[in-house]
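REVIEWER CHECKLIST
Item 1: Sequence provided? yes
Item 2: Single chain? yes
Item 3: Sequence as submitted:
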Amino acid sequence: LPGQSQTRRPVSTQSTWEIADCLNECTEWGTSFILDALAQYEASSKEAESIAERVTPRLQHANSAVVMSAIKVIMKYLDVINDNSLVKALCRKLAPPLVTLLSAQPENSIRCSQKYLLDRTETPRDSTTRDSCIFL
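Item 4: Structure as written out by the authors:
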């Protein structure tokens, strides 16, 4: 409800895999919500690699909300993944959708920039990997 703060339940390991399995079966907006839930999960390196592999195909989705949510998930887990070659590969995969979003309609460009900036202010950890990925 407007004006009321909403508390979010942490996502558990079991529910993470259950909702990740539903990605192929839900609508575009359902996919966007699932990706946002996956972005809240604190994953280990191996889990982050697996989640990133499942999310990567959503970078080519027609719906910009799905693409932005997929970018959010992958960027969150870039700092967690220990395999440098995978991080570089994910960064290369992130570049085309980011360029497409930023060169699309002005409202998409603004929303994409806002989402990135909000994510940066909400997560105070060291994000040098994510920043270098953006500016490849």
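Item 5: Key structural point noted by reviewer: The first helix runs from residue 13 to 21.
Item 6: Recommendation: ____
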